[in-house]
Design goal:
Elements (H helix, E strand, L loop, with lengths): L15 H20 L6 H7 L4 H8 L14 H6 L7 E2 L2 E9 L3 E8 L5 E7 L7 H16 L10 E5 L2 E7 L3 E3 H8 L15 H20 L2 E2 L8 E4 L4 E3 L6 E2 L7 H5 L9 H4 L8 H17 L9 H10 L5 H4 L5 H10 L11 H42 L1
Antiparallel strand pairs: 1-2, 2-3, 3-4, 4-6, 5-6, 7-9, 8-11, 9-10
Helix pairs in contact: 1-3, 2-3, 7-10, 7-14, 10-13, 13-14
Length: 397
Amino acid sequence: MTLEPYPESPESTANPEEVDEFLEAVLFHYILRCEEGQPPDPDSYLARYPRFAESLAAMIAGGVDAPLVLDSPGTATRERRRGWRLSKIGNYKIQFLAASTGSSHVYQAECEETQRKVAVKVHRRDQQVDPSEVERFRREAEILAELDVDGVVPLIDVGEEEGSLYVVMPWVEGITLTETIQILRGERQPGRIDPRPLTAALKARIVLQVATSLTQVHDRGILHRDLKPSNIMLDGKRSAVLIDFGIARKEGASALTRTHDQVQGTPRYLSPEILSGEVHSTSVQGEVYALGLTLYELLLERPAYQADSRKTLFDAVLKGPPPPPTQVDRTIPGAVSQAVTRAICHDTSKRFVDMASFAKALEEAIEAPREQVSQTRWGLVALALILAAALFWFLSK
């Protein structure tokens, strides 16, 4: 097998999403060489990409998760992923690698007993075992086993084979909200699922589904802790499915270590109170913020904060929230914009106190435009009648 060339380093003007894609590509290249029996010297990657040496060192060591990108593979993708060499685990026949994170691989597989298509998440075997990562993987399985919530990917099976832990979930035929935004922007061609067209009300309804599911998750004392567009999938019926509970935490559970616990989550979606150091771990209100920011980006089809580095991103966030959606796009209903603006408010005393409150506001906002249109229509009718009466009076004089 011919090894793919080293990824090209992004320009200095690259945005955080482009940098994340680059880091994922480098990590993929590194893991592929390990799977091919050619374990490279990690320092060779750090020397090749000195600007990203610190991030790459952490990712290669498994200390930081790489971005998770789900996709249905085409021919080229299948060829690229043959080097992973896992053909079967437990009762599941592996079909292809669908995604990779810093500590796990996600495969599409088929259950030998039922022929059901499933997703199998396997703890990586190509790196030194980190006890904290193994514990985190076990914790994800335990949390999923407790959840029986509509809109949350359920757990089917859990097992261990030759030292590899794995969890099995239903395979979701869908696209992430990240991919949805890319399609809406024209940056990606739709496949079997085409989200177009998506009105502001439909976008709000998708996030309302997630908020409703999360209300039940929170009621069970569980925080997802990594809410973002790439962890929400949209199926062919435009139903939202929340995935990846890899860093979820149950209320009362002890932290693995302070370092591992306080920095969990994707930086772009961390609440300002975490970035400013006021708190060290996310909360229910932090989850409201992350989901509100997700809806903001879905409505406007672009990131809430434009930044060329993590430092400038953090600086932009700490300066204050982005402008209300209606200031950017006046076609967005005012009630929807108000709900989003309150969800991402930096002042936690003004932010929704919990996910149920956010869900209720979204539900009311989705209905509000219809009521406003109805009121406007009747107002115009009344005005027309008044004008007609005035004209009749004038002509009859």
